[in-house]
Sequence to fold (860 residues):
Amino acid sequence: MNISRTSYPRIVIIGGGFAGVSLAKKMSKKEVQVILLDKHNYHTFQPLLYQVSTGGLEPDSIAYPIRKILKNYPNFTFRLADVQEIEIGKKNIITNIGSLKYDYLVLATGSETNFFGNVELEKHSMAMKSIIESLNLRSLILENFEQALLTDDLHERDALMNFVIVGGGPTGVELAGALAEIKKGILPKDYPDLDTRRAQIHLVQSGSRILKEMSKKASEKAEEFLEGLGVQVWKETRITNYDGKLATTMTDFVFETATLVWAAGVKGALIKGVDAKELTVPGNRLKVNQFNQVEGIEGVFAIGDIACMVTPEFPIGHPMMAQPAIQQGANLGDNLIKLLERQPLTPFKYKDKGSMATVGRNKAVVDLKNYKFQGVFAWFVWMFVHLFFLIGFRNRMVVFVNWVYSYIRFDREARLIIRPYNKDYSKFKD
Amino acid sequence: MNISRTSYPRIVIIGGGFAGVSLAKKMSKKEVQVILLDKHNYHTFQPLLYQVSTGGLEPDSIAYPIRKILKNYPNFTFRLADVQEIEIGKKNIITNIGSLKYDYLVLATGSETNFFGNVELEKHSMAMKSIIESLNLRSLILENFEQALLTDDLHERDALMNFVIVGGGPTGVELAGALAEIKKGILPKDYPDLDTRRAQIHLVQSGSRILKEMSKKASEKAEEFLEGLGVQVWKETRITNYDGKLATTMTDFVFETATLVWAAGVKGALIKGVDAKELTVPGNRLKVNQFNQVEGIEGVFAIGDIACMVTPEFPIGHPMMAQPAIQQGANLGDNLIKLLERQPLTPFKYKDKGSMATVGRNKAVVDLKNYKFQGVFAWFVWMFVHLFFLIGFRNRMVVFVNWVYSYIRFDREARLIIRPYNKDYSKFKD
Fold:
């Protein structure tokens, strides 16, 4: 890669997600050369991906050009590159557009969907970890209804209108809620010749409650909200396989569905060369010390989902969510400067700012440290926080207009099949 | 196709563009069964496609779900279908989802890019007639700049940063203007390590002036505006071929470019079965009488771009633009009702509402019947008219927010490569 060396130490960041961007911003205007590599030219605000899937928002509202985020930082270079391997010994990175030497390397590659080795399940189910996957899911949902119009087989038609969402975390809960609202507000008008009351939304959770990372009260309320919206919540239910038509469980019970969304697990997105067994923990995360340094490799750091920092409070690492990623990025930014100035580093300390999930119109659950609340006010808090954290004034305005519109009109306008659903495309191109 | 017959006559409309939607709206709540077929589930506001290509707008702002447009009309059915053939004798339509009988058939299939039989040109150049093509062009433009960063070959780098737009109609002019604004406002910030001043935008027109359908004054001013923005306007220049690298002309002069946008011609999108030589005129349009009836076929009508109605005032048919399409759709709607009520039909009379094109920030040209003007006021008129004609309150709001933002910030935020450029994908999937 033809990037000239400056007289400053070179820090290469792989990944422009929450962690990578947070770190890059910290390094701005410092005496370092920062190179950020990502396979997309945009940063994705992942918490709102489900709104892209359900036609509430368009990609540009939740994506932001990486070049633009960092355009005022003269010490910063971005390259659109797919990293293929790290040669630790040579301090060299091999990518699809050439190789690149580093002085310090920061892995901020995030996570990917974990199908736990079940190939058939992976082949037939939908993931929702990227914009392309979300758009693909949007097309599939809409195409299913178009398809349902064409069949006289009642069984098949029901399967086309059934949605099984596996995983009771925020993604699963929010997607289930959004689909339920579509069922109520949009389908009867868009498909007057279908009995859309037969459409079913199933949320399947292996554990004893949904939103298990949140308070018990939040779990209970979220379940109540979902059931109020007509979502069927299946707890203590584990999907064992899915062949594109039938989803089997541990018991005799099966779901007949043309759409299974797998939001039941993630794993670290490891890169060849830094994926040795002794470096990782189960779930493909890299063991890091309290300074986010990858244990055992000098000059290599990991932040965000890919990093597993074991502390007494977090025996299996921090939750794989935006907040720890943002905070680790910022802390590492400070530490890298300290490292270069030969000052003592500051250990990472996670500051839990609370968590939240929305279930639908006027319904959300919020857990703050000392205050937990649910319902309309929580929903306003959820909206405000999400608008606030979106990067860019225009994105906030566009999302705001869309939300106000949807709220007033009980509608979502981006129900467009721009590109037809394509399982392979989604899988291999992203 | 399992659509039940009602006791009313069945009118099938093929195509949900300006003409088809205008007609469908007219038929609402009348004693007819209306079935609209389109290969997309949305209506496209084609005049703003160039803004999708240049990252100013997202697809949902200029696309509108067809089901939603017509949701309150109980006599209306939509099917997402690709029409393959019409069997005139049997009054039958064959599609990818089955066949369908009609009593009256309205062809509103619009137009497609005309490469005038030049296969190599078609293979290597970009068209911009659909949302997928526009998104594909957006990806290509952005990828070219990423690619330009990677090469040390100055020749190749220049070719990657050169854009040749063929066709000096509104599409070509507006795209050239938008690219020039990107060159000025965005590229230097996004690509500080490229000498983006070397990027060139060429607009190539075979005739003696651009915007040849408009007034002479409009042509002159548009050219002046474009040159002020740094666009090189080549008149009396005809591109003879393009191999992906070199665009040749009638003379020795060649353009070295990695991107050639072909906006130099359209032709009617004919359907098998209604494409016989005696039914059409050059440019693949169907000869229609003054009631938009396809000459020689009982019960079959054509409206919009696909229809060629020769009148003393329009010896080669009406311009292939939105206004004639909308007006023909509305007129035919009235006439179909009259036909069923055995009343005399009203011949179509085109009411020219004027035409306009924008060149860039504060710059547009407007021709009204008795009043022609250019500059800032024209630009405001252009924006107002385009906002007004967009379907849907939310679309107008979102476009408005985007435009205000771009105006204030000299920016376009949707510069996202969501899916990589893929010539074949664009061509064969749409």
